[in-house]
Amino acid sequence: MPELELNYFEIIGVISGLLGVWLAVRQNVWTWPVGLISVLAYTVFFYQIKLYADMGLQIFYAGSAIYGWYEWLRGGKNHTELPVSKLSSKARILVVLGGAIGTVALGAYFQNFTDAHYPVLDSGLAAYSLMGQFLLTRKKIENWILWFVVDVVYVWLYFQKEAYLTASLYFVFLGMAIQGFLRWRRELKSQTA
């Protein structure tokens, strides 16, 4: 087994990432400022391990944290709290297509112009993470399904990169995605009852 090297940026990212997703599952608006801490730490860490698409994704996450913070507080009717909702069938197709287009575009760039490791896979994960994060900012229940799928692959990728703490974090995220989906589905049912 390889020797485990601790990276303080990864540790900070893991701790704040866990707390941030735990808060998101509970629809607690503090998920967004806590998420910003994770984003900053992971920006540096992903640069260090040459996962540039993931590094760039952190910049998007920073902007979406500010947007999500506002939306969750004031994005509902008459600037009230945003409720949980579902995507339309058309919107689901657009999410899948958007992720595919992002995968091809980012993958081509990182494969041809950088020394990125796993450029296409990393780009696909980043593209679909963009979709998942946007759905989370709008409190769309499908975000949890997308996160589950993405997290399964991230566990494998981070293990390959010997980012064992981050791989463990994403393994925990798998369970949190299931929990988030179940909690948000109950919320959605109670809204329609």
Automatic annotation (TrEMBL):
It comes from the Bacteria. The chain crosses the membrane at residues 6-25, 32-49, 55-73, 93-110, 143-159, 165-182. Keywords: Cell membrane, Membrane, Transmembrane, Transmembrane helix, Transport. It is a multi-pass membrane protein. It is found in: Cell membrane. Required for nicotinamide riboside transport across the inner membrane. Belongs to the nicotinamide ribonucleoside (NR) uptake permease (TC 4.B.1) family. This is Nicotinamide riboside transporter PnuC. It comes from Adhaeribacter terreus.
